[in-house]
Amino acid sequence: MPSIATLGAFALTAFVIIVIPGPSVLFAIGRSLALGRRAGFLSVLGNSLGIIPLVAAVALGLGFIVAQSVVLFTVIKLVGALYIMYLGVQAIRHRKDGALTAVADGPKRSAMRMLGQGFFVGISNPKLLVFFVAVLPQFVNFHAGAVPLQMLMLGLVFFVIAVLSDSTWVVLAALARGWFAKSPKNSERLSATGGVMLIGLGGVLALTGNKS
Questions:
Q1: What is the pTM of this model?
Q2: Using CA atoms in the order 115, 29, 204, 202, what is the torsion angle rounded to 10 degrees?
Q3: Looking at the domain assignment, is residue 12 inside a domain?
Q4: What integer pLDDT is reported at residue 106 of this predicted model?
């Protein structure tokens, strides 16, 4: 099992990586602006749950294979990017839905659907997989045995920090939605803005280098 010192060092490393605005942060903000606070929290939770299978893949050695395969890496990257863009288009198409309900919370949608969409985005994030392949083994004591279990524990630490950090961005985005969307027209514009952010995020992810 990882020592307290190892867990602390990994938690600090994970915190630094997570708090720097990146795809997960932009996804959380975009979803919150487009669909409201509830959808933002569910999307963050689903996105973070996608971490667990990635850590499991690294623990089983599959993550290294994917990270080293240009074709597999590119396919996963493009599928994830296109899906984020699809969510952005849907947010723009249904931007009027947000004007019919509480501004900050946004339109009511299926919780499982929100979780599932976030999960798919999380599990199809190849950059996160590369991070785990490159960084996770450095905090594992291979002489202590139970290597997969050690990796899963570290992945759980990363998961908790990711949920807390990204949820903070959801709160801030929901507050902005509440402050600036006092009318149906403003609510529509905010939802469209969130959709545009998601489309832009998907485009950036699709155009980045294969292993950047």
A1: 0.77
A2: 30
A3: no
A4: 54
